[in-house]
Amino acid sequence: MTTKNRDVLQSLWDFFCSLKLTMFLLITLAITSIIGTIIPQGAPPPEYVAQISATKLQVYKTLGFFDMYHSWWFILLLYLLTVNLVACSIKRLPHILKIITHPTTTLSSGQEQSIANVASIKSSEQPEALKDRISSFLKSEFAQPVITEVDGAWHLFAQKSPWCRLAVYIVHLSVIVIFIGAMIGSLFGYKGYVSIPEGETITKIGLRSGQELDLGFGIRCEQFSVSTYPNGAPKEFKSILTVLENGKPVPDYTNARVIVNDPLQYKGITFYQSSYGDAGTHFFTMTDTEGKNSVPVTVPGTDSVALPDGSSMHVTQATDDVSAFAPGLSGPAAQVEVHSTSGATDSFVVYANHPELNVSYAKQHGSKLVMHYKGAQKKMYTGLQVAKDPGVWVVWLGCFLMVIGVYVAFFMSHRRVWVRIQNGHITVAGNSSKNQAAFQPVFQQLVDKLTTDLTKEKTR
Amino acid sequence: MTSSMLFNATTLAYMASMVVFFGFLASRNQKVGLAGSLLAYAGLSVQTIAIGLRWKESYDMGVGHAPLSNLYESVVFFSWTIILIYMFIDLKYKYRIVGAFVVPFALLGMAWAQLGLASNIEPLVPALQSNWLLYHVITCFLGYAAFAVACGVSIMYLIKAAHEENSSSSVSAGGLMSLFPPTRVLDDLNYRAIMIGFPLLTLGIITGAAWANYAWGTYWSWDPKETWSLIVWFVYAAFLHARFTRGWVGKRAAWLSIIGFAATIFCYLGVNLFLSGLHSYGGGK
C-alpha cells in the first residue's frame, strides 16, 4: 500500500517535473490564447450573437469563451504552469547549488575525457614551484584558484561567476512573483468608473463587479474641456478636479489637472481620464395651443423625463443655432423623442424662436399640448477610470527580476578552469556552462599565455 | 531636402543591396558580397538621417513627436531595426550571405511604406502623448527585428539542410550552397538572434504594461495586441526550453523560429488589420 502510494506520488512528481509538460503548457497557452482575440470578450454584442447559431453560442458560453482569460480551464493551465516550474526548479536546484557551493576542485582523468577544452604543457620544473607560479598566474589572469594535493599531484581549480547558474531560477521565480502581484491586485484592489458632471461632486463609484464603492472622500469636477489641433483631431482631454474631505477642498488636490497619460492619485486610488460627454440641461415649456397655461419642463442631459400627460421624452440632439440645419430659421432648437402612453414614438424638432412652428406641429398631430424650447445650460461631464491595485509593485518587482534573470541567463556563463601538475605534465582543462564557442578562444588564449609564461621563465 | 526623398533613397539602397546580394549568390565573389553589405549600411545611414529629419519636420509643423506614431512610421522603423540587427550580426559573426535573406524583409517594409501607406505627419492623439511611447516602440521593434533575422537564417538552414540531404550520396558540387555557412553555424545564428530578440520582447511587453498601468490603471487587460505579444513570448519561451533541455536543434528549431516570426508579424500587423483593440496606429481611438 505504502509502496503503491509512493509510486503514485513519484509518478505524479515526475509528471510535474517533466519538460514535456512545460512544452505542452507553453504551446497550449499560446494556441488557446488566440480564441480570446477572435471571439469578443465580455457580454457578447447582439450583432455577434445574431451571427452565430444558438448551439454555438451555448457551447461558447459553457466553455467560458466570452471571458476566456478568466475561465476555469485557462486559470488551470496557468496554475499547472506555476506548479510545473516550481517542481522543475525544486528538482534541479539542489544539483545546481552543489555545483556552486561544492565544486569539483580536482581534475580526474575520467573528467578530463568529458571536458571540451583540454591542453597539456610539459615542464621539468619542480611541482611545488610550478604550483605557486600557476596559482599566481590564474589569480591575475582568471580567478583565485583553490589548491589541493592528491597522491603527489597538485590540482588547481578556479572559477568565474558561478552564481549565474541561478539566473534561470530567478526567471522562474519572477513569473511566480508576477502571479502573486496579480493575485494581490485582484483580492485587495478594484477597478471602477465614475462620471462627474461639471460642478458636481461624487463620493461613490461603480465597480466593474457591478457593486458600488464609497470612496470616503469626494471628487468634484470643476471643469472639463477638449482642445483640438487645427485639423480637428483631438489634442487634449482635460478635467480639473478637486478632492474634498468632509466637504472641504484638500489643499494639494485643489484644481488638479487630469489628462490622458497623466492621472490623479489620492490615498492609493488613481483617477484616469477615460471619456467625456454632454451633461447639459435642456429647458422646455408646455402650453396649450393658445400659448397659455405654461408649465416648465427640465430635461437633464440625455435623461428621460415624464410629461404632464403621462408620456415621456428625451433630447436626442440640440443646437444653439438651427440655421445651419434649417436655412431661414434661427435660434436654439432641440430634436426630441416622445414616447406616448400608447407605446408610439414620435421624433420632432422644437424651436425657441419660432413658437408658431411648434403650434402648427401640435395642431397637425392633434395634440392639445405644445412644446417650446427655451435653450440649454451648457455642461460637460468627465468619465474617469478609477483603480486601486496594491499588487502592482509586486508585479514590477517580478518584471525587474525577469529582465535581470533573462539577461544573466543569456549573456553570462559559469566558467571553470582546472590545472593538474603530475610527473612533469601540466594538464589544463576548462569549460563554460553555456556558449562553449565563445569560451574556446578565451581558453586557448589562457593556455598560450601560460605556456609562454612558463617557457620564458625557464630560458631566463 | 525632405525626409520623404531620403526614404526613397533608402528604399533604392535596400533594393540595390538585395540585387547585389543575389549577384553574390550567383557569382560567389566576395567583393560583390562586401558591396551588398556596404549598400545595406549606406541605406541604414540615409534612413537614420531621414528618421531624424522627419522628427525635426514634425517640430517645424508644431506637432513635434518621435516618428513612431502611425503605421507608416512604424513600418519604416521596423525596416531600420532589421538592418541594424543585421549589421550587428554581420559585423560580429561575419557571414555576409545572411544579408541575402534578411535585406528583403527590410526592402519589403520600405517599399510597402513608400508605395502603399499614407506618409503625412499627423499630430499625436492624447493616448500616445507619453515618453513611454519611445521606450515601448523601440524595445518591441528591436525584438521583432531580431526575430526577422532569426527567421531569415532559419530559412537558409532549411534550404541548406534539404540540399545536404539530397546530395549526401553524390559528391557535393559546392556551388551556391558552399556560400551558405555550415548548418551548425546557421543553427547557432538562429539561436543567437533569438537570444537578442527574447529579452527585448520581454522588455517591450513590460514597458507596454507599465505604460498601460500609468495611463489606464491596468497593466494587463487581455487586449488582442497584448495577448498576441504574449503568444509570441510563449512560442520563443518554448523554443528556448526545447533547445536547452530537450536538445531541439536544427530543423525543428528552424521551424519553431519561422512559426515564431509568423506569430510576430500577426502580432504586429494582423492584430491591427483583422482584430480590434487599442493599438490602432494613428487610426484614431
From TrEMBL, chain A:
InterPro entries: Cyt_c_bgen_Ccs1/CcsB/ResB, ResB-like_domain
Main location: membrane
UniProt keyword annotations, A-Z: Cytochrome c-type biogenesis, Membrane, Transmembrane, Transmembrane helix
Transmembrane among keywords: yes
Subcellular localization(s) per the UniProt record: Membrane
Topology of the protein relative to the lipid bilayer: Multi-pass membrane protein
Chain ranges of the ResB-like domain: 19-443
Membrane-crossing residue ranges in chain numbering: 21-39, 71-90, 166-190, 393-412
PANTHER family, A to Z: CYTOCHROME C BIOGENESIS PROTEIN CCS1, CHLOROPLASTIC
Protein name: Cytochrome c biogenesis protein ResB
Native source organism of the sequence: Pelotalea chapellei
TrEMBL record, chain B:
Segments traversing the membrane: 6-25, 32-51, 71-89, 96-113, 133-159, 193-216, 228-246, 253-275
Primary localization class, coarse: membrane
Cellular location(s): Membrane
Coiled-coil intervals: none
Domain Cytochrome c assembly protein stretches: 68-279
Keyword Transport: no
UniProt-listed InterPro entries: Cyt_c_assembly (IPR002541), Cyt_c_biogenesis_CcmC (IPR003557), Cyt_c_biogenesis_CcsA (IPR017562), Cyt_c_biogenesis_CcsA/CcmC (IPR045062)
Membrane topology of the entry: Multi-pass membrane protein
Keywords: Cytochrome c-type biogenesis, Membrane, Thylakoid, Transmembrane, Transmembrane helix
Task performed by this protein: Required for the export of heme to the periplasm for the biogenesis of c-type cytochromes.
Family assignment from sequence similarity: Belongs to the CcmC/CycZ/HelC family.
Protein name as annotated: Heme exporter protein C
Organism: Pelotalea chapellei
